[in-house]
Automatic annotation (TrEMBL):
<dbReference type="InterPro" id="IPR005119">
    <property type="entry name" value="LysR_subst-bd"/>
</dbReference>
<keyword id="KW-0805">Transcription regulation</keyword>
<dbReference type="Pfam" id="PF03466">
    <property type="entry name" value="LysR_substrate"/>
</dbReference>
<dbReference type="InterPro" id="IPR000847">
    <property type="entry name" value="LysR_HTH_N"/>
</dbReference>
<dbReference type="Pfam" id="PF00126">
    <property type="entry name" value="HTH_1"/>
</dbReference>
<dbReference type="InterPro" id="IPR036388">
    <property type="entry name" value="WH-like_DNA-bd_sf"/>
</dbReference>
<keyword id="KW-0238">DNA-binding</keyword>
<protein>
    <submittedName>
        <fullName>LysR substrate-binding domain-containing protein</fullName>
    </submittedName>
</protein>
<comment type="similarity">
    <text>Belongs to the LysR transcriptional regulatory family.</text>
</comment>
<feature type="domain" description="HTH lysR-type">
    <location>
        <begin position="1"/>
        <end position="58"/>
    </location>
</feature>
<dbReference type="InterPro" id="IPR036390">
    <property type="entry name" value="WH_DNA-bd_sf"/>
</dbReference>
<keyword id="KW-0804">Transcription</keyword>
C-alpha cells in the first residue's frame, strides 16, 4: 500500500470522476485508475463503484476513506513539523480586515511573502463581527477588526489604534456651530453610519443604549468615504473615526462628543493558544505583531 494510492482514492471519491481527479492531481488518468485497481487487489475488495455516471465509494470504500484521509493528514503534519523546525514554512494563511484603517496591509503581506515564499496568502474584507467569528472558527488565522473596551472571548489582541468616534456634519448643519456636543444631542436626529456588524456601529449603539435611546439611522454604507459625502450634502450627522473625519475638514465640521462616550479600538486579533493553529498561521501572527506598532509603542 502506497500513500499515492490513498491520495488517488480520496481524490477520486471527492471528484466522483477519474478524469477530474487526474486533472486535479496533475497525472494521467490511466495511472490513477491503475493505482486504485492495484490497491483494490491488495485489499481484496472493490473500493469504488464505477457502474454509474459518477464514481462513488462502495461500502468498503466508504469505511476506508476516513483512515486514508487520516494517513494523508498525518504525513502532511510530519512535513509541516519538519519545515517549521528547519525554518521552511509551507501551507496557507488567511488574514481578514475591516475596510477603514491606515494600516499598510500590502506592505505587511509583501514582507511576509519574502520571508516565507512557499506560503499561500489570502486576504478578505468583512465587518468586524463576521471577521471575529471567522477567527474563532479557524477560517482566518488573524484579522484587523474594531472592538470595544473588552477583549473578545477566546481571542488575543494587539491594540494598534485607540481613537475617538465623532459626529461630522455639513457646514450649514444646525449643529455645525457647536464643535463639542453631548451624546444626547444626537437623539432623534438622522444619523449616517456603517452597517450593523461593524465595530463603529456597535460602539454607537452601545453608547446610545447607555444614554437611554436608540440611534436613528437614516443612511448606512460600508465605505466611510460614502458616509462623509452624504453628511457633506446635509443628509445627517455621520458617525466616523476622529482622524478620518478631520482629514475631510474642508467639507465637514467635526463635532467632538463630550464626555467622550464613543471610542473605537483597532486591533489585530487571533485565536488564543490552543490546537488548530498551523505553523504558517502562527508565523503570520508573529510577523504582524512585529510589523504593527501597538498603541503606546515606539
Amino acid at each position: 500500500m502506497e500513500l499515492r494510492q490513498l491520495e488517488y482514492l480520496v481524490t477520486v471519491a471527492e471528484e466522483q470522476n477519474f478524469t477530474r481527479a487526474a486533472e486535479r492531481l496533475h497525472v494521467a488518468q490511466p495511472g490513477v485508475s491503475a493505482q486504485i485497481r492495484r490497491l483494490e487487489r491488495e485489499l481484496g475488495q472493490e473500493l469504488l463503484d464505477r457502474s454509474g455516471r459518477s464514481v462513488r465509494p462502495t461500502e468498503v470504500g466508504a469505511a476506508v476513506l476516513p483512515y486514508a484521509r487520516a494517513a494523508l493528514a498525518a504525513v502532511a503534519n510530519v512535513r509541516l513539523v519538519v519545515d517549521e523546525l528547519t525554518g521552511l514554512l509551507r501551507g496557507r494563511v488567511a488574514l481578514g480586515t475591516v475596510t477603514s484603517h491606515d494600516i499598510d496591509l500590502p506592505g505587511l503581506l509583501v514582507a511576509f511573502h519574502r520571508e516565507h515564499p512557499a506560503v499561500e496568502i489570502t486576504l478578505s474584507e468583512a465587518t468586524s463581527d463576521r471577521l471575529l467569528e471567522s477567527v474563532r472558527a479557524g477560517r482566518l488565522d488573524a484579522a484587523i477588526v474594531s472592538i470595544g473596551a473588552g477583549t473578545p472571548p477566546g481571542l488575543e489582541v494587539l491594540v494598534v489604534d485607540d481613537h475617538p468616534i465623532v459626529a461630522a456634519v455639513a457646514p450649514d448643519h444646525e449643529l455645525a456651530a457647536h464643535p463639542v456636543i453631548a451624546l444626547d444631542a444626537l437623539r432623534a436626529r438622522p444619523l449616517i453610519s456603517l452597517p450593523q456588524g461593524s465595530g463603529l456601529r456597535a460602539r454607537l449603539e452601545e453608547a446610545c443604549a447607555a444614554a437611554g435611546f436608540a440611534p436613528q439611522i437614516a443612511f448606512e454604507a460600508s465605505d466611510p468615504d460614502v458616509l462623509a459625502r452624504l453628511a457633506a450634502r446635509g443628509l445627517g450627522a455621520a458617525i466616523l473615526p476622529g482622524a478620518f473625519a478631520r482629514s475631510r475638514s474642508a467639507q465637514l465640521r467635526v463635532l467632538t462628543i463630550d464626555p467622550t462616550a464613543l471610542r473605537g479600538r483597532l486591533v489585530l486579533a487571533w485565536r488564543a493558544e490552543g490546537p488548530g493553529s498551523s505553523p504558517a498561521g502562527r508565523a503570520l501572527v508573529q510577523h504582524a505583531r512585529r510589523a504593527l506598532t501597538p498603541v503606546g509603542g515606539a
